[in-house]
Amino acid sequence: MGSVVLTVTLVAFFFNLRQVNEERATLTINLEQRATLLADSLKESVEPSYVNSSGASLHTALQRTVDKFANRERLAGIALYDNKGALLATSSGLPKTIIENTKSVSDAMDSNKSKSDFVDADGETRYVFVDPLHNDEGSILGALMIVQNAGYINNTIAEMWRGSLIRLVTQIIIFSITIFIILRFFVFRQVVRLVESIKQIRMGKKTEIFKDTDKYSFFAPLAKEINQITKSLSQARSSASEEARMRLEKLDTPWTAERLKEFIKAYLKGRKIFVVSNREPYIHNKIKNEIKYLVPAHGMVTAVESVMEACGGLWIAHGSGDADKETSDKNGKIQVPPEEPKYTLKRIWLTPEEVQGHYVGFSNEALFPLCLMSHTRPVFRKEDWMIYKQVNGKFAESLLREIKNVSQPIVLVQDLHFALVPSIIKKNRPDAQVGLFWHHPWPSPEQFSICPWRHEIIKGMLGADVIGFHIQQHCNNFLETVGQELESIIDFERFSVTHNGHTTIIRPFPISVALTNDVSPKEDNKNIKTFKSFGIKTEFLGLGVDRLDYTKGILERFRGIEYFLDTYPEYIGRFSFLQIAAPSREGAQKYKEYAESVKLEVDRINKKFEFGDWKPIIFEKKHHSHAELTPLYRETHFCLITSLHDGMNLVSKEFIAARNDEQGVLILSELTGAARSLKEAILFNPYNIAEIGEAIKRAIQMPPSEQHVRMKTLRGRVKDYNVYRWAAEFIKEVTNLG
């Protein structure tokens, strides 16, 4: 539309310019004609005086004639000169600059022709016309100068431009309104309808949208083509659903999003799933007056998001983004994912005091270090515990409102932030089927016994029907903890705990990623990042992807790289390591101190080895989406994971899922839950710096054939137990269908 308006404006400008030039020429000609007529009339009166008079009488006669003609309209004045250019008579008020400028007078007498010109004098434009005077023999007696006001020409031209501009603006406004009405009501509305219809079809919500294609006006041919595509897509979906239903009966077939949907339809009969977590899957922030969203770099989000996209439902989480309220409705709800909504996210608003006490204080400074053996002392503060209980109650109340009219709701509580929620839900809604998945390791009974509120935490957890951990060892530790802390009946054959008449099943469910036979990780071509985009051009590449968390062993990792370069100096300048570190828990002092330590260690090692524009470690402290990480996973020679203790570690499985070329090497800490199943990775002790360095050397020198064998086996393991199978088995256990 802008180009059309510009074209119309240019056409109108040049048309008006032509009109203005023609009008200026016409006015100038008219002025010249009037001057000529007046000059002819005056010459008849003054030429006899030049012949018959001289001296004072000549001056008097000429001045009398000048005064007689001086007051005519648009006539600024008259001046008379002798044949030597001397002034004989002039009108009063005629500018001296014109009178004293005798060049035009001399030119007219020398050429014996009239001369004319436009002159600016005293801030006004004047038209000066000079005509020579003759006697009967034709000799030149002097010159007649007629000065006329010409300012009206410029005024007339300016008025024409103003009128043209007003007409142009009016025309543009009318034209724009007309175009807007046409686009808005005849084109845009049809396009919006088409886009919305296609979106509904893509999401599988409607299939008969394009039945009446004539209503799409001149988009009807496009609608007809889409109608045909819709029929084909519907048939493909039907075939996929049928195949998924058949797979439900076959235990050896892989789990997919479609199979999980069919599982939910077949076994849950339309019952809704409700998820409770602290971290939300989509965080909206305002960046330079533009609202953007990011997906947090967290294993829980990666796994549960895949399930919710496949099954739908309601996810309740803390709204932590500065634009979360602006993008949510009055109830804190928003449909997500933003581009293709498949479920509802309900945000709970917490005060800064609640965030500090619940998330930063008790969850991250008490429970988190208590569960992970990373040699960080837990900090137990009573005020944090009180806020922790308060926030658990706040989330439980919100959930109870949502499930008020829902029969037998399925509630999946996530992680250590809401250990008390299961018992609150079960107390108020005994019919609810509640699952609690603990995304971190469970410590030994001796380690957990230092917690002042251990009894309340365990009782809160035992309100769940099923408690899931990543591996069997964590289940064993939990059962031993319950046996040591509470009066209860423990069945080690069924792995269950009965407390106050309620039985809770304890099971391992190793969480995973969405890798299937025919689905590759999603990529967004607009956001593709390569090592070259970070300025890395070396022969050998290494990659680390973690939250900036002291349990991830990032300091040990960098010291392992230092050992590698010290021991094998031939790789200096030929090897680069890119560390993607997503900021995490920045409100906690321990994390601030750790982030500073990591930065100092990067600077120290780089300063030790760097030369020219090369440095061994490129440190990127920034959130990166899965679409941005996938090309990096595929390009690197190895992915290095040095967690000091980890419940599972999904980065290892994301790396495997991305390597559909069946190349690359996974170097994995043996202290992660993932190490229990990913035996084909290079496993090492993250506390042994030399082992890290040697593992890097081994990965770089590993032949492609060995890489292929290892990666193919690893991909088979992840594919066999992917996130859809994890969700199906966990939900199946929660709903007592096992």
UniProtKB/TrEMBL annotation:
It holds the Pfam family Glyco_transf_20. The keyword Transmembrane helix applies. The chain crosses the membrane at residues 165-187. The keyword Transmembrane helix applies. CDD domains: GT20_TPS. GO terms for biological process: trehalose biosynthetic process. GO terms for molecular function: alpha,alpha-trehalose-phosphate synthase (UDP-forming) activity. Keywords: Membrane, Transmembrane, Transmembrane helix. PANTHER family: BCDNA.GH08860, TREHALOSE-6-PHOSPHATE SYNTHASE. Belongs to the glycosyltransferase 20 family. This is Uncharacterized protein. It comes from Candidatus Nomurabacteria bacterium RIFCSPLOWO2_01_FULL_42_17. The lineage of its organism: Bacteria, Candidatus Nomuraibacteriota.
